[in-house]
Amino acid sequence: MGLDLNLLVPLDALLQECSVTRAAQRLGLSQPTVSAALARLRRHFGDELLTRVGNAYELTPLAERLAEQTAQALGSADRVFQTRPDFDPAQARREFTLVVTDVHLATFGRTLAALVRDTAPGVRLRFQHLIPQIIRRADEHLRTVDAARFPITGRGGESLSDKWAGGVRTLHGILAVGFPNLFLVGSPAQAAFPNNYAYLLYGQGSYVSTLVKRCLDEGFTSVEVHPEAEERWAQQIKERAAGIPAVDFGCAPTPYGGLISSGYPGGPVEYLRICREWLEDGWQRDLIFRSPSDATA
């Protein structure tokens, strides 16, 4: 039996409200109209969808499964009809869904919300907490979101946030022990405070592209930093900061007094010069390379 797609809207309201009366109020329709829509939906699905329990209604098991699918379908349809040739933040009227972890929300959520409020007053942000079900069924969930930040995990399932619980530890703010083929670009932590952010991104991008090209040329499939190199970089930051008066690094205490979570004290020009020199003489000493033959050995 064919079904009128217009019934998706009352179906979503009924599943969200678990009440014909509240669904009608939400949609601005009469109660008999919504009751008629529920009757058609029940016939189509061969299921009650809403069952009375005492003085209230509850979703049937089928309705619980439909609730998520219906929201996704409406979200996809909404994106289709809100598409425009050009995106003008000042004129936009839509909702963006972002899937984030608690850490990411605390890090940039307030700043992003303030930016959207000032530049796109008609845009709403809906932050969705990252849960295991979203990761397991990413192909379904990501169809209805506009952005997602997933936790970074390395060897043995360790997350980057756990590794950095006591302070950021990297080589040049780009490579981290235990996280092969991970290149961190754009963060000032253990790199250089981005007075000129474009300059920092260009320098770090050149750093990464040089390493990737060398790995491809040599047939390597994995690159990772030696623990000793990571330790030397943290020590170098500490030593470079010595003698710089009244520097507030704004970090939690760490074995290096908070310095290892800061930017490179010598500034971005000196930092990128060190990176270039390291790419000329030092990268082979400080990195671990693996090829396909290593996995079969």
List the main descriptive attributes of the protein structure presented here.
297 residues, 13 helices, 3 domains, elongated, D-Maltodextrin-Binding Protein, domain 2, FAD/NAD(P)-binding domain, two-stranded antiparallel sheet, Arc Repressor Mutant, subunit A, mainly alpha
Architecture blueprint of SSEs:
Elements: H1 8-17, H2 20-27, H3 31-45, E1 50-53, E2 56-59, H4 61-82, E3 94-100, H5 102-119, E4 123-129, H6 132-136, H7 138-141, E5 147-148, H8 160-163, H9 197-218, E6 222-225, H10 227-241, H11 268-280, H12 283-286, E7 287-290, H13 292-296
Description:
It is built from 13 helices and seven strands. With 297 residues, the chain is mainly α. The strands form three sheets. The protein has a three-stranded parallel sheet, covered by helices on one side. The longest helix is centred in the N-terminal third of the chain and has 22 residues, at 61-82. The relative contact order is 0.08. Residues 246-260 have low confidence and may be disordered.
CATH superfamily of the largest domain: FAD/NAD(P)-binding domain
Helix share of residues? 40-55%
What CATH calls the topology of the largest domain is FAD/NAD(P)-binding domain
This entry's quaternary arrangement is: single chain
Shape: elongated
Unreliable parts: 246-260
Structural class by sheet pairing and helices:
mainly alpha
Please tally the helical runs, counting DSSP H or I stretches of 4 or more residues.
13
Instruction: Please provide the count of β strands.
Output: 7
Distance between the termini: 59 Å
Tell me about the biggest sheet? 3 strands, parallel
CATH architecture of the largest domain: 3-Layer(bba) Sandwich
Provide mean pLDDT, rounded. 78
CATH top level of the largest domain is Alpha Beta
Order of helices and strands: HHHEEHEHEHHEHHEHHHEH
